[in-house]
Amino acid sequence: RKEVEQDPGPFNVPEGATVAFNCTYSNSASQSFFWYRQDCRKEPKLLMSVYSSGNEDGRFTAQLNRASQYISLLIRDSKLSDSATYLCVVRRGNQGGKLIFGQGTELSVKP
Amino acid sequence: DGGITQSPKYLFRKEGQNVTLSCEQNLNHDAMYWYRQDPGQGLRLIYYSQIVNDFQKGDIAEGYSVSREKKESFPLTVTSAQKNPTAFYLCASSTHREETEAFFGQGTRLTVV
Fold first, then answer.
1. Which of A14, A34, A35, A71 is exposed most, by the fewest CB atoms within 10 A?
2. Within an 8 Å CB–CB cutoff, is residue A93 touching chain B?
3. Strand A105-110 relative to strand A11-14: parallel, antiparallel, unpaired?
4. What gap in Å lies between CA A35 and CA B39, rounded to an integer?
5. Which of A34, A96, A102 is the closest to B101 by Cβ?
């Protein structure tokens, strides 16, 4: 079993739709959590950090459930420009901050 | 402007040759990482370094080597022992603080011809 697992994609949604991505992690020593966005043939860029209390940034909401070892990302009112691959990232505190990536979930927003 | 720079952007290598990918950062970050990404796949950790003159193997270190002689630099050598080296290589850096994210270079696309 992979340490960080994401919903298999791709997700194909119409503009304006709400879409949710899920991610689970297996190592309870994991301390910090992030969502990155990666456009085709480009480097990943931070979308948002994920805090225990949940956090929102415009149309994006991230939530963390430590008891279930589960992270989610909700995108409301999808735009064409949201089309990308979304990567769930976990940082372990007990190994000097090693960053572990999920395999990514591809989102395609159609007109 | 602070950032992390990888070079070259594209690299072609003949089979049996070693090649070194450059990664430099001026963010004053202690930690640096090398990842490999294959088409349609996630990022897999090759090596990481938390401090100068120290580094640890990641999940797929075989056929690769690194050095960390300076805080700013973390070059990756792809050796002839790496059987399938064609991939997109990404370098990242971060602080030691757990809650901080990693920043990536633009990547090097290596093709074996």
1. A14
2. yes
3. parallel
4. 20
5. A34
Q: Work out the minimum CA distance from A108 to partner chain B, whole angstroms.
A: 14
What is the per-residue pLDDT across A10-26, written as a single tens digit (0 to 9) for each?
999 999 999 999 999 99
Q: Report the 3 state secondary structure along chain B.
A: CCCEEEECCEEEECCCCCEEEEEEECCCCCEEEEEEECCCCCEEEEEEEEECCEEEECCCCCCEEECCCECCECCEEECCCCCCCCEEEEEEEECCCCCCCCEECCCEEEEEC
Q: Which of B18, B10, B17, B75 has the alpha carbon at shortest distance from B46? A: B75
In this structure, what token pair is assigned to residue A57?
Answer: 């940034």
- Residues B93, B74: Cα–Cα separation, whole Å: 10
* Chain A closest-CA separation from residue B17 CA (Å): 25
